[in-house]
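User: What would this chain look like folded?
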Amino acid sequence: MGHYAKVVDGTVVRVLVAREEFFKTFVDRSPGEWLKTSYNTRGGVHYNPETGLPSDDQSKALRYNYAGVGFGYDGTYDAFYPPKPAEGWTLNRTTFRWDPPPGYGAADPTHETSTDGPTNPDDSGS
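Assistant: Here's the prediction, encoded as C-alpha cells.
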C-alpha cells in the first residue's frame, strides 16, 4: 500500500491509501495530478518506522514531506510543504519546512534552532 496526494493548482486537495496497481486503471476526470507521498519522510529525510531514526536507505525519501490536505506542492523541486503557520515565516528550500522569524524559536521539534521563543501572554507562570 502507498499514500497518494491529489494536487490541484499547487495545493493538495485529497490524500488516500491505495495499491500502486489501482492507479494503473483508475480514471480520474477531475483536474489535477495524483502523486505518491511517503508517510515516513519529513524535511527531506526518510525515517525508519520501527525506530523513528533516519533510515539507512535515504533513496526512500520522497518529495521532502508527507502530504496533507491543504499542503502546497512545488513542482520545480518536486516537494510537498505544509501551510505557512503565520506571516514572517520563511520556507526553507532544503527541508521544505517553515523557518520561524528571528527570535521566535523552533519551527518544529525536529528543527535545530533556539527554542527560546516569545512567552505566551495568557501564561501567568502559575
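Residues 109-126 have pLDDT under 50 and may be disordered. If you want, I can go into more detail on any region.
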